[in-house]
């Protein structure tokens, strides 16, 4: 059954009625630019074909009801919900209602059923897909005039302040603003975006996404520690954020940072921002294949300087490169999650098999791989 049909089925089973409409928002992979978002830097995500569908309709009794194929028993809350009231998965949905009201919009009470094929907790941003699908549904259902450029920050506030997860603006921007066949170049300081041509098929190339299926460990604590190191480094260097340090100033900046950990973290962020800019320049010039070495350099930097990889993702990168990939890197916040590899179109099966064989050699849980084509952002389904 398609995700769309699953959402309709979940809706009719939970509420005994047909939904008024269906809205979908995708998961994302970040082509390059990791941990740069909260340093006011640059990121370059594209939308996955996997997406979260919200089947929704008005709630006759003025009470919000939400359910998911993963949690079929409806959770209810009133329009004046506030952080702390709804916990668990429902917080992502109630958070969107709360954040819309905080932003001055009056979302209509709705009944919502969720279905998704975005893998949860794999760094593909199922949380932003959920928030974005719900936000888009509520805006349409209520005829709310929420400008597209304001939507990512509203969804981010839901996740930061209602759910309590201190994430940057990357995920929600990608799920809401990506376009098919493009990568989204986002300046996380100004929120300026540019749609970058990303037609891999035309270049005879493909992106293979490899889910390491490694259990996430200590993610929240490590994420917080990385953010803190970056803030400390910026403070020592006397800049608002590490975005303000360019590659030419890096050697002098590293000299001023006595602490070896801060030096490594800073080196990753500064060089990673430059790699995003270099990748964008190559894509604009249609030189897609040449981004491969930048992807691999990004991985090396995450492994050695930012220290956010685990054995499973390092092995996947090495195996993909050994199988002929033009470049490969972990994507997402780290400590597990997914790897992406830039490969010749038609080499997907061999590359996936090579990674799977390397995993078997290491005794790791088998990976899951698929070719990802840049899809559309959040939208109402016809
Ligand atoms: P990621 O965004 O990388 O997938 P997160 O931990 O940020 O991982 O978000 C995953 C959480 O989002 C899940 O634990 C769940 O609470 C919620 N979620 C995402 N998709 C769904 C869904 N289809 N149904 C119910 N909850 C979901
Ligand atoms: Mg998330």
UniProtKB/TrEMBL annotation:
Keywords: ATP-binding, Carbohydrate metabolism, Cytoplasm, Galactose metabolism, Kinase, Magnesium, Metal-binding, Nucleotide-binding, Transferase. PROSITE patterns: GALACTOKINASE, GHMP_KINASES_ATP. It is an enzyme of class 2 (transferase). This is Galactokinase. One of its GO terms (molecular function) is metal ion binding. Residues 281-360 form the GHMP kinase C-terminal domain. Transmembrane segments: none annotated. The keyword ATP-binding applies. It comes from Actinoplanes octamycinicus. Residues 9-58 form the Galactokinase N-terminal domain.
């Amino acid at each position: 059954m398609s995700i769309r049909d699953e959402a309709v089925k979940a809706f009719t089973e939970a509420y005994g009625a047909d939904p008024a409409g269906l809205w979908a928002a995708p998961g994302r992979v970040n082509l390059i630019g990791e941990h740069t978002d909260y340093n006011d830097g640059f990121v370059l995500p594209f939308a996955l074909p996997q997406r979260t569908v919200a089947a929704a309709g008005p709630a006759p009794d003025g009470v919000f009801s939400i359910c998911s194929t993963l949690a079929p028993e409806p959770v209810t809350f009133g329009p004046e919900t506030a952080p702390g009231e709804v916990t668990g998965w429902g917080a992502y949905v109630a958070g969107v209602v709360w954040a819309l009201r905080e932003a001055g919009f009056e979302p209509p009470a709705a009944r919502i059923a969720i279905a998704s094929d975005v893998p949860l907790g794999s760094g593909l941003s199922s949380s932003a897909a959920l928030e974005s699908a719900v936000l888009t549904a509520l805006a349409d259902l209520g005829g709310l005039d929420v400008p597209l450029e304001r939507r990512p920050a509203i969804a981010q506030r839901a996740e930061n302040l209602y759910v309590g997860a201190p994430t940057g603006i990357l995920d929600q921007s990608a799920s809401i603003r990506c376009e098919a066949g493009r990568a989204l170049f986002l300046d996380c300081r100004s929120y300026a975006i540019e749609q970058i041509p990303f037609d891999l098929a035309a270049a005879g190339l493909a992106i293979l996404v490899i889910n390491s299926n490694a259990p996430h460990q200590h993610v929240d604590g490590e994420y917080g520690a990385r953010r803190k190191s970056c803030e400390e480094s910026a403070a020592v260097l006397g800049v608002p954020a590490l975005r303000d340090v360019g590659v030419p100033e890096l050697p002098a900046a590293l000299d001023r940072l006595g602490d070896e950990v801060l030096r490594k973290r800073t080196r990753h962020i500064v060089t990673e921002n430059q790699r995003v800019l270099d990748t964008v320049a190559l894509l604009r010039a249609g030189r897609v294949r040449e981004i491969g070495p930048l992807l691999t350099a990004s991985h090396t930097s995450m492994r050695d300087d930012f220290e956010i990889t685990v054995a499973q993702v390092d092995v996947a990168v090495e195996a993909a490169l050994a199988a002929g990939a033009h470049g490969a890197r972990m994507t997402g916040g780290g400590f597990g999650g997914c790897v992406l590899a830039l490969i010749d179109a038609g080499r997907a099966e061999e590359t996936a098999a090579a990674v799977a064989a390397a995993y078997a050699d290491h005794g790791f849980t088998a990976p899951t791989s698929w070719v990802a084509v840049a899809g559309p952002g959040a939208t109402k389904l016809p």
